[in-house]
Write a structure and sequence with these properties.
Number of domains: 3
Number of strands: 13
CATH architecture of the largest domain: 3-Layer(aba) Sandwich
Largest sheet: 6 strands, mixed
Strand order of the largest sheet: 1-6-5-2-3-4
Structural class: alpha/beta
Shape: globular
Radius of gyration: 25 Å
Order of helices and strands: HHEHEHEHEHHHHEHEHHHHHEEHHEEEEE
Distance between the termini: 77 Å
Number of helices: 17
CATH superfamily of the largest domain: HUPs
CATH topology of the largest domain: Rossmann fold
Amino acid sequence: MNQEVVTEIFPVSEKVRAALAVTLRGAEELIPQDDWVRKLARSEATGVPLRIKLGLDPTAPDIHIGHTVVLNKLRQLQDLGHTVIFLIGDFTSMIGDPSGRNSTRPPLTAEQIRVNAETYRAQAYKILDPARTELRYNSEWSDPLGARGMIQLAAKYTVARMMERNDFHERFKAGTPISIHEFLYPLMQGYDSVALKSDLELGGTDQKFNLLMGRHLQAEYGQEPQCILTMPLLEGLDGVEKMSKSKGNYIGITEDANTMFAKVMSISDPLMWRWYTLLSFRSEAEIAALKKEVEGGRNPRNAKVMLAKEITARFHSAVAADAAEQDFVNRSKGGVPDEIPELALSGAPLGIAQLLKQAALAPSTSEANRLIDGGGVRIDQSPVSDKGLKLAAGTYVVQVGKRKFARVTLS
């Protein structure tokens, strides 16, 4: 890039300062901030939108709201008028991201990648505006690179620098195998930034090494280096561990509206404000005013309902969010939701533990018995304490915990 363009100074207006504030909201780190301010000022002066990139590898069929922290930031920057690039790493998925891992990640098959990529696209568009999103796949430029291009790319970084990466360093120290192909992952992610000429790349805090690689390679290829913006990892429902399916503390963005609403309502009051910052599209001024009202005596439950409705409406609809609120109220009063699954079972008289298992309200009879011991099972709203209970033919409303219901007709 022409050095004159890079160093030219443009005025920093109030609009630029406001855009910087939007960028920094909830962010962990912006590197380097001065460069980003210069890019924003140049964009405003020239009318040329900046290119802002987020890459996700489709390693699983769906995503939870923890993944949407960076997507929300992308949407905020999209609303400022910049070009947002949602990059699906169909090529890099074949390598596997070594970030934070102490072993080699098994590569996905082409079919797994194709199915997951389509799901990611559909789910990302629940947050991003499809009409203003540039959807790309990194196989577009990675496949044509070929063996010669890969060798030329690998020549632009040293093994010593690669081994500075924490996960590689720790694995090498522990004598844990590191496959040569794992070194290619950060190189290929960095090359994505070269191919897309990105001005800013977003990622989680665990992606910092890969994001910095993009800056290095852009400079190597004579481009103006991108800035990087890292976002924190969202705490899950427990408020302690990061949100994760394996830890069971997550909200999937394809979960039904009632479950989604109830899960948001289950978080602690302190965690609620953290979620407001990272997940809500309300302005920081609105959130600050709401927090002040709560500190002044307003019931924090009201603020939590607002957050639960906003998140539920985003992935379903405003009507579904209203219905989910009513469903939550009914359940909290011990009532039965208007719509519950209905199923027919045979084998009367049937033991209660077996019924819970067959109705998919418990994964096993032993778990069903544990739920009964814990007082978590109701039949027609009456608690069940007898694990030996046998139900005669008839129709029953069976409840497990606060959220699981089924209308079972037993014959």
